[in-house]
Amino acid sequence: xxxxxxxxxxxxxxxxxxxxxxxxxxxxxxxxxxxxxxxxxxxxxxxxxxxxxxxxxxxxxxxxxxxxxxxxxxxxxxxxxxxxxxxxxxxxxxxxxxxxxxxxxxxxxxxxxxxxxxxxxxxxxxxxxxxxxxxxxxxxxxxxxxxxxxxxxxxxxxxxxxxxxxxxxxxxxxxxxxxxxxxxxxxxxxxxxxxxxxxxx
Length: 201
Hints:
The model has no long low-confidence stretch (mean pLDDT 80). The chain folds into two domains: 8-59; 82-193, no CATH class. The chain has a three-stranded antiparallel sheet with strand order 3-4-5, with helices on one face. The longest helix has 31 residues, at 29-59. It is built from five helices and five strands; from the N terminus they run ααββαββαβα. By secondary structure, the protein is an alpha+beta fold.
């Protein structure tokens, strides 16, 4: 800008530019961090609200029921779960059983707890004692007149899509501090254990 061009208007424009440029330089690193945090929190809240809205819409959907057989249900079942891993396959079912149901099972099993046993191979009369040091017992649905075990077993059947007739009894285990069960396979090879009534799924 030449001296001849230095009019009051140009002077005012120059001051405005200088003021904006000075303000711009004041946005130092802490200010940038604050802005970033603000937009992050804002985006997170918006995402959470959209997710909750989606779940509400899903839960409010009305389904038309199909005709069912003797072993079917007359209602829709919704059991929330999370896929933890496909290989190996692992799923997480949050709040699958209530705290009251869990405490009921603990109270039901407590009088029957005994040292956990090992399946013996052919020729063995007693397994090594340091492999499994927990306490445990087996409970069947018929052992619980309140119907808690029956309700949980029915829910397991719906979650796994496996008929209840394929199930073992509930194996309730208690591990005190320091107790353990060494890594093992839940299967019984015939050549090692001899003929078995069944194999686990």
